[in-house]
Amino acid sequence: xxxxxxxxxxxxxxxxxxxxxxxxxxxxxxxxxxxxxxxxxxxxxxxxxxxxxxxxxxxxxxxxxxxxxxxxxxxxxxxxxxxxxxxxxxxxxxxxxxxxxxxxxxxxxxxxx
Length: 113
What we know:
Residues 1-93 form the HTH arsR-type domain. The structure is a single chain. By secondary structure, this protein is α+β, with helices and mostly antiparallel strands. The protein has helices at residues 10-14, 17-26, 33-40, 44-56, 79-86, 89-112, and strands at 31-32, 60-65, 68-73. Helix content is 60%, strand content 12%. A 3-stranded antiparallel β-sheet has the order 1-3-2. α3 (33-40) crosses α4 (44-56). The N and C termini lie far apart (57 Å).
């Protein structure tokens, strides 16, 4: 099975841990590439490469402010991930519901003993 291009598939883009780290930092607000690199302990060229990928999949937007380019999170790009993960929410809710029912049953049995 062919793997989707990292630059067009949000799942592939966020599979890289440093890109997830960048998204986590940008959740707190816009940053210049140098700030991101320092905060995450990576080289500036490395941060730029990851930002390019994240921008291409629609997770990061950028804007020019004077001589500096600031990068910010565009969480709308995470919608496919949210929709996919949300499909498992029902599974977990049902599992926790069954676990809760079992715990209540055990409590009831202890009270009767």
